Amino acid sequence: MTGGAARRVVVADDQTVVREGIVMLLGLLPGIEVVGSASDGEEAVQLVAELAPDIVLMDLRMPRCDGVEATRRIRTDHPGTQVVVLTTYVDDDSLFPALQAGARGYLTKDADGDEIARAIDDVLSGEAGLSPRIQRRLLERVAAPTPSPRKAPVEPPDGLTAREVEVVRLVAEGLSNPEIARTLHISTATVKTHINNLFGKAGLRDRAQAIHYAYRHGLAQPPGENLT
């Protein structure tokens, strides 16, 4: 850490053992002062209002108020406090909402003390505090080819979200849930949730109906149909 006043940090994590371990680790680092710890997002927002820390190390999956919503509220109501996500999740459904909510850093929980300290310094200096793994994921996303607009209509049917359209298109292409998860960089459980949601919205009973639905609404092209 650089010289000057200590960086005042709040740690937010719903797992007591993990939270206490992070607090203990930060206590060993010079130039960092842990001023509070929170067991959920709601408590994190309250501590920020009371303590005005420089940084919140924020877990994502927490009860009452998750890390994304807590980050959004902190950055809106307390712009002097920055947020660095510290989580086990690196899928797109975790990463991008957190960054869009205002997090300036994103680390995984295998980060060591030096990585955390460096991310805190980077964020407080106006830079992004991202682990190398997260930087690679962002570069992959930016470099990925833009999907053809013909694969989904401007207004998806039955109120489907853009992600649900992607999922049903991949179902129509014959991909299994694990294959869809790998393609979209999300968990298999998240794929199942999207499938259940789109089945409910579209009144579908099984994957065969989902395939016909995708073809009928132009969400996917039947085999052998020329896209040119």
From TrEMBL:
<dbReference type="Pfam" id="PF00196">
    <property type="entry name" value="GerE"/>
</dbReference>
<dbReference type="InterPro" id="IPR016032">
    <property type="entry name" value="Sig_transdc_resp-reg_C-effctor"/>
</dbReference>
<dbReference type="InterPro" id="IPR001789">
    <property type="entry name" value="Sig_transdc_resp-reg_receiver"/>
</dbReference>
<feature type="domain" description="Response regulatory">
    <location>
        <begin position="8"/>
        <end position="124"/>
    </location>
</feature>
<keyword id="KW-0805">Transcription regulation</keyword>
<keyword id="KW-0597">Phosphoprotein</keyword>
<protein>
    <submittedName>
        <fullName>Response regulator</fullName>
    </submittedName>
</protein>
<dbReference type="InterPro" id="IPR039420">
    <property type="entry name" value="WalR-like"/>
</dbReference>
<feature type="domain" description="HTH luxR-type">
    <location>
        <begin position="153"/>
        <end position="218"/>
    </location>
</feature>
<feature type="modified residue" description="4-aspartylphosphate">
    <location>
        <position position="59"/>
    </location>
</feature>
<dbReference type="InterPro" id="IPR058245">
    <property type="entry name" value="NreC/VraR/RcsB-like_REC"/>
</dbReference>
<keyword id="KW-0804">Transcription</keyword>
<dbReference type="InterPro" id="IPR000792">
    <property type="entry name" value="Tscrpt_reg_LuxR_C"/>
</dbReference>
<dbReference type="Pfam" id="PF00072">
    <property type="entry name" value="Response_reg"/>
</dbReference>
<dbReference type="InterPro" id="IPR011006">
    <property type="entry name" value="CheY-like_superfamily"/>
</dbReference>
<keyword id="KW-0238">DNA-binding</keyword>
